[in-house]
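Hey, sorry to bother you again with one of my protein questions. I've been staring at a protein lately and its backbone has me curious. I owe you a coffee for this, so here goes:
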Amino acid sequence: MFGSRKNREKGSILLIAIVVVSVISVGLVCSLAYQKDLGKMGNRRREQMRAFYVADIGVQRVIHWFNHPDEYTPDTVLFTKFSDTESYFDSSDQTRFISTVSVPSGLLPVVYDANNSYLGELVNLQLLPPDPTHDPISCIVKVQSVGKSFSGPPKTIMVYLNTSHTFNIECPAAIITDQTATWGGQFNIRWGQVWAKHNAILPNLAQTKKAFKDDPWLKLKVKETVYLNNANYADGTNTGSTTPLPETAPNYFQPWLLTDADLDEIYQHQTETAADAADPFFFPIFDYQLNKEYAITKGRYYGSDAAGDIYRDGIIDEAHKVTDLYAEFHIADADNGPYEFIFIDTIDKQPPALDGSNMCTLHFSGNTPHTKGVFYCANNVYLGGSGDPPDVTNAVDPNNSINSLNKVRHQGLFYVSGQFDQQGENTIYGSCVAGGGFGSGGCPEVYYDYRLKTGALMTAGSNVRRVLWRTY
């Protein structure tokens, strides 16, 4: 009887073990099946997202043709504005898209990754005419784009496009700063004005006098005090390191002014209109977020770190680090090369802090590149040396005369959120804007491109924009 009880206990333990193992096995099988399903769902979602982004490439391609209509070779007129209305709508409020247009298959891209592995392709791209009666929103054209990934079903998106507003790059002066502008070397500003919300500290009398006398377009607009280094009174005594000009100077300074009529140009705060006379400081605003978004979508966007290194696409790792500034940015043909839009962000990709805590100093010196267009640095910048940049042989002065400028480092707008320190021997043709102050040493030059005054030099933005989109 005892043996039978013992056998029964062993049998019970074995049965329990079998049940436990069975439960665990079932659980493992269910878990594996669940994980497999999750993997399939993840793969399916990934393929759907790839198909969506491939389809979106088709929409971007259409927007590109609106901006560059001559590149749509099947019909170079289709994406242009009507000449009589200067609009995508004619006098009868009709667009050029009066029937469905299927984009030829030869213009539909196939997408590969960095390793040249197939990701997907655009299988259909159609341009549908607007239907004011049934469309939920007014548009120029409807874009139906179908993308297909490596596996999984195709993805269709419908996007309604309408007129967008481009923005002109405008800058009213050669040098603009929200702080103080200082020259420790030569005062080589040509063809334009210098604006400073605080002070302007000019070099010695001979340098300053010659600069203003030689250039009829050189003017000062300074909100606080203009200083002239080591200037003399009429009796020959020296005033020391800086001398304030008449707006804030004591009365005894006036006799010195009257001794040299050539200096009249220096001391005037010129205004061009009645509005300028009331408030001569209409300082342009170069919005951080607007320019950043434009660079990400249409230009070239870079990040930075505390050491002043630059990274492509804002990705801070060794693979995206820019190690050769010349190879990255240089435009060899200064006269005919394209205008570009380059944005270098703060170290934390947030708007520049008032105390400069998220701004590094970017160093461009030696054999640095020639750049052209908008160079927007949301940091501090040191621009030094001379290097060997190309000459600009078609520079236009305010009289519309063509000039040749030697060794131009940048042409267009050079914007710096922090301190801009221009040193050595380098030339900028366009405008320099520095939120944190402008400093200059040595003999650099800035030639103002007066076309920036009206925004005639270059335009940013897209001719059309998405006003509504749907997925299927």
Observations:
- Residues 170-456 form one domain.
- Residues 198 and 224 are 5 Å apart (CA to CA).
- DSSP finds seven helices and 29 strands in the chain.
